[in-house]
Specification:
The strands form three sheets. Strands 3-4-6-9-10-11-12-13 form an eight-stranded parallel β-barrel, surrounded by six helices. It has a two-stranded antiparallel ribbon with strand order 1-2. Strands 7-8 form a two-stranded parallel sheet. The chain is of the alpha/beta class. Helices cover about 30% and strands about 15% of the residues. The protein contains eleven helices and 13 strands. The chain has a single domain, classed as Alpha-Beta Barrel (TIM Barrel), CATH 3.20.20.70. Helix 2 packs across helix 3 and helix 7 packs across helix 8. The longest helix is centred in the middle third of the chain and has 21 residues. Strand 12, helix 9 and strand 13 form a beta-alpha-beta unit. The structure holds flavin mononucleotide (FMN).
Amino acid sequence: MESENRNAWPRHHIRIVPNLFDPLKLRSVELRNRIGISPMCMYSSEDGFANDWHLMHLGARAAGGAGLVMVEATAVEARGRITPADMGIWKDEHIPPLARVARFVASQGAVPGIQIAHAGRKASNSRPWEGGHALSPAEGGWPIVGPSPIPFDSGWLVPKELTVDEIRDIERAFQSAAVRALEAGFHVVELHGAHGYLIHSFLSPLSNHRTDRYGGSFENRTRFPLETVRLIREVWPDSNPLFVRLSCSDWVEGGWTIDDSVSLAKLLKPEGVDLIDCSSGGGVPKATIPVGAGYQVPFAKAIRTAAGIPSAAVGLITEPMQADQIIRNGEADLILLARASLRNPNWPIDAARELHFKGTWPVPPQYLRML
Ligand SMILES: Cc1cc2nc3c(=O)[nH]c(=O)nc-3n(C[C@H](O)[C@H](O)[C@H](O)COP(=O)(O)O)c2cc1C
């Protein structure tokens, strides 16, 4: 009968593409929409502990309608903190306050996630609003480590070159962190492999000058993240997704490139990584970065299409229509928001309005009268 209606699309011309408010299922975990809160350091912990600030900050964004709320870069060992005020997960005592955050986020219908991290040669700094400078021991700083004894920039601390045994210890610290994250009730764990921190500094030939099996060739420079992922997957349940955030490009001649990122993503997928979170930069102080609306989206698209693994797009995604288009165009599977969600914790609810979303809006019953 369809042929009687000249305006009807033949069925095979209709392609159902996901949009920003379609759920995203990764393993057994379903996000209610494609909007995630990107990990954001709050520099507000004492001795690594989560507190009321984190509950308020992350809780507000879960109540604001996000599908995923990710806890900031959380240090797997104390010397892996960027600042003394970073969040930590290096001891069991850290679990209960993190569990409080995860519980509340989940109670609001968002999936609680956590980024586990080691700052490497960018550790031992003061907080950004205190100048973000290298801390001397007198100021409460500590000895830092990296793949090679090359400081990030002049005026920064010189990292001690890690021995192979010390690398293995840090890999196991990531594994223990994943065990604690699970106990705290997080459903997604993300390995921080971006922004010049320890894992990225192993990947990039600009910061890794080692001559042993952790440096030199692509295979050697990627050994540390691959071994770490394997250890995490041993303890992280099959039902739960594992993300890796990469700096997809150093934006510098001779540095880590998007082609390297695609090659690494192809290796990470069979190890049980479910999504690559596509950021960039941070590895070297001077890089020419074409910052503009959605400037890292092409990385998410390249990883998704060339490596065949789901990806997240992040970076100057501020408008609902823009975010929706990225999903509809198949450029990424998930949108991560950082600064836009600081400006407006209810960004997802506002986006549902702007996009005329027809389903159940992610609004807590207490706030229904806002609609
Ligand atoms: C306050 C703040 C803290 C951040 N902390 C982290 C972090 O802990 N881990 C991380 O991978 N990126 C961190 N970032 C980067 C963001 O996750 C995000 O990738 C970046 O801000 C670009 O997204 P946007 O344009 O939506 O802000 C931080 C950004 C901000 C603004």
